[in-house]
Amino acid sequence: MKAFVTGGTGFVGSSLVRLLLEDGYDVGVLVREKSNLTNLEGLPVTLHYGDLKDKDSLKKALKGYDFLFHVAADYRLWVPKPDEIYENNVKGTKNIMDAAGHTGIKRIVYTSSVATLGLNEDGSPADEETPVSFSDMIGHYKKSKFLAEKAVKELVDAGKIDAVIVNPSTPVGPRDIRPTPTGRMILEAAQGKMPAYVDTGLNIVHVDDVSRGHILALKKGKTGRRYILGGENMTLKEIFETISEITGTPPPRIKLPHNLILPLAYLFEMVSRITGTEPLATVDGVKLSKKKMFFSSRRAEKELGYSHRPARQAIRDAVEWFKKQGLLQK
């Protein structure tokens, strides 16, 4: 069987490519002329040069494939030009779904995010049915992913595609070459560059468990249904303490109130608009941190047979990979 992956050069996508190859799939990957191919080095994949903004290149690339994993996403909490995020995440998703419908793709797994889901006010784990609306979306990334997921659902409801939606929580682990915002946080904490923390929480999951969840969704997922692919709920303080235990670097001891950081985030973003560099803290990031991003993967566990390893192992694998890249002292 032949599987096509968008975002295959990235963090989650390259993990998925590896597992698909292990399972015996012939794998094709969408890449751009300037894509960083480091995560695909040595892998027996077919590269298809194209762009999510170019419908013709997508239709050409998808010909002959059975399945599509649309993993690619523009994951930035701050962008100088917000239109870019909607162009990549919303229009790009519509384009690849349209191309899949025209080329006979049998089934699609669309990688959404827990960013599109509702949260419980009391901090208890949310699930796929926790109430949410577009007005709850904070920042352009969340808004764009909400709209992209909505577009996929509409195509499924119209009978134009057979797609399953997966909502990964916060993946960590090896091959985070960019790194992602979470990977950067782990790296800076491991380097002792994180002086303080806020009272928030994340659901930490190993990137390879998320990738395995994608394949399970392809095989067992119900058409049009959402599945949270998560791991272990941890407070930010617990995450930093775990990093400290693994690396020996002292964890941050100062807990800062959100209202103190928010004015600084506005200042950082103002400077970034002038310099063009990414801000040290973003307004959206601070607003998001006011709620604990805790989730339950019970549906995926029950319906897909999904499972995850301890968060500590995911964090350790991330730290070890950063060490191998020479970013941490061994």
What would you note in describing this structure?
With 330 residues, the chain is of the alpha/beta class. It has a domain at 2-173 and 204-232 and 295-309: 3-Layer(aba) Sandwich (Rossmann fold), CATH 3.40.50. The chain has helices at 11-22, 55-62, 83-103, 139-157, 181-190, 207-220, 236-247, 258-275, 283-288, 298-304, 311-324; strands spanning 2-6, 26-31, 46-49, 67-70, 107-111, 163-168, 170-172, 196-197, 201-206, 226-229, 232-235, 254-255. The strands form 3 sheets. A 7-stranded parallel beta sheet has the order 3-2-1-4-5-6-10, with helices on both faces. A 3-stranded mixed beta sheet has the order 7-9-11. Strands 8-12 form a two-stranded parallel ribbon. β5 (107-111), α4 (139-157) and β6 (163-168) form a beta-alpha-beta unit. α7 packs across α11. The chain is globular, with a radius of gyration of 19 Å. The N and C termini lie far apart (42 Å).
Oligomer description:
single chain
* CATH topology group of the domain at 2-173 and 204-232 and 295-309: Rossmann fold
In spatial order, strands of the major sheet run 3-2-1-4-5-6-10
> What is the total tally of β strands?
12
As a percent range, the share of helical residues equals 40-55%
Quick check: average pLDDT? 92
Largest sheet: 7 strands, parallel
Q: Uncertain runs with pLDDT below 50, 5 residues or more?
A: none
| The named CATH superfamily of the domain at 2-173 and 204-232 and 295-309 | NAD(P)-binding Rossmann-like Domain
Give the CATH class of the domain at 2-173 and 204-232 and 295-309.
Alpha Beta
